[in-house]
Structure formats: C-alpha cells, structure tokens
Amino acid sequence: MPSTDEPLLAVEGLSSHYGPIRALSDVSLTVRQGELVAIVGANGAGKSTLLRSLSAVQPKSAGKVRFAGEDITRLPSHKVVARGICHAPEGRQVFAPLSVEDNLRLGAYPHRRDRVWLDRELERVYQLFPILKERRTPLAGTLSGGQQQMLSIGRALLGRPRLLLLDEPSMGLAPLLVEEIFRVVQDLNRSGVTVLLVEQNVKAALALADRAAVLVEGRERVVAPCAELLADERMAALYLGRHAAATREPV
Question: What percent of the chain has pLDDT over 70?
C-alpha cells in the first residue's frame, strides 16, 4: 500500500517549451511510494513532455521537481537515472543495431559493476518476458513491435527504478499483447515498483491506476482517484471521452 509519508515524487508548477511553443504549463502532481498514477489526455496534451521533463530529456522552463525529498530540478538525465527514475519512452527507442541482451545491459549501465545483481535482474526480466530470453542474441531491430515494447520496459527495469515512467506502452500493439503488457505493469506495481503511466487507452489506464491526472493543453485539470473520475459521468465525458465512462474492470 502507498505510504502516507512525504511523496516519492513532487512536481510543482512545472512548465516546458519547444522553442516558442509551451507544451506544459504550471503542472503540479505528487506520486506516493507504491502508487500507480496514470496521466491521461488527448493527443498533444503534454503527457509525453511531462515524462521527458521528469527524466531530464526535455528542458524545464519553470517549476520544481523533488524526488525522495531531494530537489532534482536541475540534475542532468544521467544523474536522474542514477537516483532511480527510469523511463521507457514513447516509440520504444531501442538500439536497433545492438542485440537484445546488449540493449538490456545498457539499461543497467549505472550499476554495471554489480555483476551478481545484474545477472539476477537479467534473469528476472527474462522471466517477465520469456520471448526476450529466446531472442537474446538477435539484433533488437529484428523484433516485432510488441517485443520491442517488452525490451524497452525491461531495459528501464535494469536501471533499478524507484519510479518507473512508462510512455504509451500499448501503442500500436494487438489487443492480446496489450493485455500482456498491462498485466506485467500491474504485477510490477504490486511487487512494489512505483509507476507513472502515460496511456492513450484511457479505460485500461484507469483500471490499473490508483489515481489519474488529466492533462488538457499542457495543464493538469483534474487529479483524482480513478474510481471518482469514472463515477462522475460529466467529468468522464468532458475530460476522458465517453468511452471511459464505463465500469472499472481489472485488466
């Protein structure tokens, strides 16, 4: 169960720009240890920009980010990863010319000297995604889209995440693979991994998450328990789309 202590992640007034275009505007959010929080909203709402800003891939224009009580607002991306914020980005972004196992080992680069831990965690990833063990030596670029998504998540897990950022893990996948990916995400969260999930599949995201933040044009409009969002038909229709105003079911 999430702790009632200081949030693991606290975002206050975060803004970010792409040149003159403001993609995020004054976003505030907290994530407690052990939670699974979903970020939902229409295309272009700023969801991916939020995750990229948290992992320091995208520059922040204003605001503050605290993680485990530390101000990490100005830390570069490699130091953010070292703190335990690990990102499986939109579009997978695997290293196509490298083998599957080399991709996974790159995720563990900050901890590469701990060979015992690395061997154990590689085996854990292979247990989560057996197809990656079967295809550990072929080049990552030869994998299917679903397999590349598994590889992207596995690579992030090998960064020793205290907070796992998942960006559109179901994008472009067949329904059976979507179910498998979400089942793994749910199992990871139940095992104690804190997750911040960006997902276009609103119904699935709200079924998984404890709470959700709704972004509209770069601003957070609502942060509430998922059951509360789904129970309010007006709010669901206004912010989530009519298809989301359905009974909350487990994935």
Answer: 93
DSSP state of 99: B
Contacts of 103 (CB under 8 A, 6+ apart): 94, 95, 140, 151, 155
DSSP-derived secondary structure for 172-195: T--HHHHHHHHHHHHHHHHTT-EE
**Gap between the Cα atoms of 181 and 143, Å rounded:** 16
Phi first, then psi: give them for residue 139, nearest 5 degrees. Answer: -70, 145
Rg, the chain, Cα only: 18
Backbone angles phi and psi of 33, in degrees to 5: -55, 130
* Amino acid (1-letter code) at residue 142: T
Asked whether the predicted pLDDT for residue 178 surpasses 50, the reply is yes
| Dihedrals phi, psi of 149, to nearest 5 degrees | -65, -40
- Which helix or strand (DSSP H or E) is residue 65 part of? strand 62-67
In terms of DSSP H, where are the helices of 4-99? 47-54, 77-83
pTM here is 0.88
Model confidence pLDDT, tens digit, residues 55-108: 999 999 999 999 999 999 999 999 999 999 999 998 879 999 999 999 999 999
Residues 6 or more apart whose CB falls under 8 angstroms from that of 7 comprise 30, 31, 32, 33, 66
Distance of CA 187 to the CA centre of its chain: 14
